[in-house]
Design a protein that fits this description.
The chain starts with 10 loop residues before the first helix and ends in a 15-residue tail after the last helix. The protein is globular and about 55 Å long. It contains ten helices and eleven strands. It is α/β, with parallel strands linked by helices and 340 residues long. The protein has helices spanning 11-27, 52-67, 83-92, 106-115, 144-157, 172-188, 205-217, 230-237, 265-276, 310-325; strands spanning 39-44, 70-75, 97-101, 120-124, 136-139, 162-167, 193-198, 222-225, 240-245, 256-262, 296-298. Strands 7-6-8-9-10-11 form a six-stranded mixed sheet, sandwiched between helices. A five-stranded parallel sheet has the order 2-1-3-4-5, sandwiched between helices. The longest helix is centred in the first third of the chain and has 17 residues, at 11-27.
Amino acid sequence: MNRTPLSVLSRRRLLQASAGASALASLGLGGRALAQSPLSVAGIYTVPVEQQWVSRIHKAAEAAVARGDIAYQYSENTSNTDYPRVMREYAEAGANLIVGEVFGVEQEAREVAADYPNVAFLMGSSFKEDPALANFAVFDNYIQDAAYLSGLIAGAMTQSGNIGMVGGYPIPEVNRLMNAFMAGVREVRADARFQVSFIGSWFDPPKAKETAFGMIEAGADVMYAERFGVSDAAKERGVLAIGNVIDTQADYPDTVVASAIWHFEPTMDAAIAAVKGGQFVAADYGLYSFMKHGGCSLAPLGTFEGKVPADIMAKVAEREAAIRSGAMTVTIDDSEPKSS
C-alpha cells in the first residue's frame, strides 16, 4: 500500500472520463434511482480485514448487510499489481458500488473507473476527487478530533514526559492523527518529548513491536499504537498505550488507556444512499469521518475509568462538546511528524 504520485491521466483517459460523466446522467448513476435492493457492494482490500483501518470499512459494510441494504462480497490481501484486475472483475460481475483503498494504485484505479461509468467507486485516497471522473469518490480517515482528545489523556498519564509513536508510513492519513495527538499531549504536558518512527508497512506486528521496545528502552512510558504490535510491547514492558482506529482495551485492560475510534458507518451509509438515489458523484467523503458527523469518537476508558485525573477528563468533555458543536476545530496537519 505504498503511495505513489498520481500522474496526469492521458488525454484518452480524460476523454473517457468526460464521456463517463455524461453517461452517468443518461444511464442512471447520477440521474435515476437504482431499483434493485439490496445494492450490490464489493470491497477490495490490500490487507486482511482484521487490520485496523480496513476492519472499520468491513464492519460498516456488514452492518449494512444486517439491515438488508446491501449484498456484500470482498477480496482481502489483494496486491497492488492485482488491484486493477480485481476492480474490473467486480465491475463486470455487476457490482453497483466498489469500496476499497487505492493508495498505491491511484492512476490505475482511476483508469479502471473511467471504463465503468455506471459503477460507483468509493476509494480511500490521499488525493482529491476529479470532477471529470464523476463515478469516483474519495475518502480518508479524518479522525484527528478523537486523536487530539486521546492526546490530552496521554499528556496526563505520562510520568516521564517521553512518548513513543510507531506508525506505518509518513503519509497524510497517519501524519494528521499523530500531529493531532501530539497537540493534545502538549496542551497538558508542554515539555513532552516524542520518539517518532515509521516501520514501512501497514501490517507487520513483529516489526512494530521491536520498534516500540526500542522506544521504551529509551525512556518512553506511553506508546501511541498506530500499528498492531505496539500495544503488545507496551504490555510486556509494563508501560501504557493509546490505541488508534479500533478499541483494543478489552485485549489490553492494563495497558490501553484510551483509543481514537474511526466509525466508517456514516461514510458507507452516505455512499449507499447516494447510489440508491441516483445521486452519486465525484466527491470527498472524508468529512463523514469528522466527530461532528459521527465518524469518530473516543473509546470508553474501561478499566482506566477513574484513573485519569478528573480535571483532565473534564477538559476532554469540554473539548469534545466544542468539537461536536463546531465551536472548536482540530487542526488538520498532514506534515510528517518528527521526533522532538
